[in-house]
Specification:
Blueprint lengths: L7 H60 L43 H13 L3 E2 H8 L3 H13 L3 E4 L6 E4 L1 H9 L11
Helix pairs in contact: 2-5, 3-4
């Protein structure tokens, strides 16, 4: 049987194509594995370290509970008895947290009484809405609406150059406090 050999140029091209394919596959595998290992492996290692520390911590807690006589593994097993030294038992007084002293609240007032109360307090000196809130014992929203209404009606002045705003009483406000009644009538819902 006679074998016809192809031209040497064709054989050389086929061998070079095969070798270039092998080199391409090798480089592709290297670049892909390097990129994957750098991005995924450290997070897995960090995650494993984190959970390992958590498990160790849980084991320590469980051992401490078992030393105290509690068991959480199998309830039907007897608990461990720990040898204790003869130490006289001393009753420790039970700690009772002192009750916080509640600030005296201003009794429920009508809107007119609230206006008079706030104007009298501002007459003593400039105040912020937070100061009024603390003294008045009402919510921030309530005080904000009240102070806005008093400002719009001209009973108080507002210093807007600093924050929080400071409120001062105006002449109209002094007249209102002095006479006890003003020329503005407010609707009060009950």
């Amino acid at each position: 049987m006679i074998i016809d050999l192809p031209d040497a140029g064709i054989i050389l091209v086929a061998v070079l194509a095969f070798l270039s394919g092998l080199v391409t596959l090798y480089l592709y595998g290297k670049t892909r594995s390097v990129g994957v290992s750098e991005k995924i492996a450290p997070t897995n290692v960090e995650r494993i370290d984190y959970y390992e520390k958590e498990l160790i911590d849980m084991k320590i807690r469980l051992d401490a509970m078992e030393l105290d006589g509690e068991t959480f593994t199998k309830p039907d097993l007897p608990t461990k008895k720990v040898k204790s030294f003869d130490v006289p038992e001393v009753e420790e007084p039970e700690f009772v947290a002192p009750k916080p002293k509640a600030a005296p609240r201003v009794p429920n007032m009508s809107f007119e009484d609230s206006v008079t109360f706030v104007l009298k307090k501002i007459t003593e000196g400039p105040m912020t809405s937070r100061d009024i809130e603390v003294i008045f014992g009402k919510s921030r929203e309530h005080v904000s609406r009240l102070m806005k209404k008093l400002f719009e009606d001209g009973f108080v002045g507002r210093d807007t150059s600093i924050r929080p705003y400071r409120y001062t009483i105006t002449d109209k406000g002094r007249e209102r406090v002095g006479s006890g009644e003003g020329d503005v009538v407010y609707a009060v819902s009950q």
